[in-house]
Amino acid sequence: MLIPVILSGGAGTRLWPVSRSAYPKPFMRMGDGETLLYKTLDRALRVADEGRVLTVTGRDYYFLTRDEYATHPRANLDHLPFLLEPAGRNTAPAILLAALYARAEVSPDAVLLVLPADHLIRDLDAFAADVGRARALAEQGWLATFGIPPTHAETGFGYIRMAEAVEGLEGRRVNAFVEKPQREVAEQYLASGDYVWNSGMFCFRADALIEAARTACPDVLAAAEACHAHATAHESPVEFARESFLAQPDISIDYAVMERADRRAVIAAGFDWSDIGSWKAISELEPESDEHGNRVRGQAILVESSNCYIQSDKRMVAAVGVKDLVIVDTDDAILVADRERAQQVKLVVDRLRADKHDAAAFHQTVYRPWGSFTVLEDAADCKVKRLVVKPGHVLSLQLHHRRSEHWTVVKGVAKVRIGEKEFLLNANESAYIPMNTVHRLENPTTEDIHLIEVQCGGYFGEDDIVRLEDRYGRVAAKD
Asked: What backbone phi and psi angles, to 5 degrees, belong to 120?
C-alpha cells in the first residue's frame, strides 16, 4: 500500500510578511487561490492507495490543516490520520515516527511517499509517473529519492551525484549527497550531467527505512521508538509526550539515514518543481505583466519602473522610478527588498523576534481552533478585535485579571456565559464581562458568529488568559 506522508510546518521566515510562524508557508495562497498545503494534498490523493494520506505537523497547525483538507472534494478525513509534534524538530524524527506508525497501524511493508507541504509541482501526470517508478524501487527495498535535473547553477540547493542505473528498474544508484556548493562548483555540476538537485522528497518501505536507520543511526531510531511508545493518543490525531519528543536528536533524514544507507536510488524527476524558498522564487511564478519585466499580484501602478514584483491583497501600491524590487503589502506590514537579496528577509524576522514583536509570529488576523480574530486597534488604553466563531465551536472557559471586555454581536446568535449566568446574545446586542469573571462564548448555530470585542484595562497580552476548561486540549496556548 502506498501512503503519502505530508510534512507540514516550519516558520518560512524568508517569505515574511505573508509566512509567519503562526501561519507558515504551507498555508500561503498562490495566484489561483489554492494554498501550497491544498496542492500537496491534491497530488498526494492522486497517488495514494485507498485515499490514505498521513500528515505530520505541529500541534498548533492541526485545526488549520484539517479545515484546509475539509475543502478538498476527494478528501475523506477518516482516511487522513495526523501525527502531531509538540514542538519543532527536523525531518528524521518526523519521518521515522511516520514509519513506526505505518508499521504498527497499516503494514510493515507499507510504502511511504514523503512530500514536504511547501513545494509547488504543476505537472501532476509526470509526478504520478515518477512516483510509480519510485514505488517500484521502494517495493524492492531501495530507499528512493527524487532528484530535480538542474536548470542553472543554483547555490541554494543541495545536490545528489548519480551513479550507474539500478538493474531492472528505472532509477540510478546514489553516489553521494553534496552540500550547497559555491558558484564555480555548481557550474561544474551542471556541466557534468551527473548531478541533480536534492528535492527532499522520498519513497521507501516503512520496514526498509527502519532497518536502515537501525544500522545508520541507532541512537536516532531508539529515540524515535521511545517517543512512539509514549504517544499520548493512539488514534488520529496521535500526540507525543513532549519530554520524549524533545529527547530526539534534531537531525535531517539526509544526515541520519540517506547519506549512510546502502541501497539508495534516485529518480531524475520529469516534473516541474519549486520549493518556493524566497520572494524571488514567488515572483518568477507570475507571468510578466508589462513590457518592463514587472510582475504584479493585486493592485499596483508602476511608473518608469522595471523588473519589480509587487503583491498586495487589498491596497493600491504605487512604484515610481524603481527597479529590481520586491514589494509585499499585507494588512499590518510591508516588505521592500532587493530581488537579489530576497533570501535575507529572514534577518528581518530575527530582528522582530529579538525585539519580541508580534509581527514575527502573527498576522493582523490570527486563526484559532474555534475560528479567528482580527485586531482592529491596539492602543495603550484599549484593544479592539473582530471575532469570527465557527458553527458548533466554543472558546475556552476563562477569566482575565487585568482587563474587562465588552462583546457586541454584529452577525448571528451567540451563547454567552458570564459568571453563573447563561443567555443568548443576538445581533446588535452587547454584554459586559468584568475583570476576574469567568466567561465563555459559544456558537450553537449553523452559521458563523461575528462580534466586536473591546478590551479595557491596563494590560491586553494574551498571557492574561486564565483557562479553566478547553475543548481543544490547550493548556498554555492562547485563545
From this structure: -120, 125
User: Distance between CA atoms of 220 and 226, rounded to whole angstroms?
Assistant: 10
The span from the first CA to the last CA of the chain, in angstroms, equals 40
pLDDT at 476: 47
Instruction: State how far the Cα of 352 lies from the Cα of 350, in Å rounded to an integer.
Output: 6
CA distance 471 to 346: 35
Q: Compute CA distances 372 → 19, 156, 449, whole Å.
A: 17, 36, 11
Rg, C-alpha atoms of the chain = 24
Residue showing cell 501561519: 23
What gap in Å lies between CA 260 and CA 164, rounded to an integer? Answer: 18
Residue ranges of the chain whose pLDDT lies below 50: 476-479
By CB neighbour count within 10 A (0-12 exposed, 13-18 middle, 19+ buried), where does 355 fall?
Answer: exposed
- DSSP-derived 3-state class of residue 344: helix
Which residues are CB-neighbours of 457 under 8 A, at least 6 positions away?
400, 402, 403, 404, 435
User: Measured between alpha carbons, how far is 209 from 145 in angstroms, rounded to an integer?
Assistant: 12
Q: What is the pLDDT of residue 143?
A: 97
pLDDT reported for residue 13: 87
Mention every residue, 6+ apart, whose C-beta is less than 8 A from residue 407.
414, 416, 425, 430, 431, 432, 433, 441, 451, 452, 453
pTM: 0.89
Give residue 286's pLDDT. Answer: 85
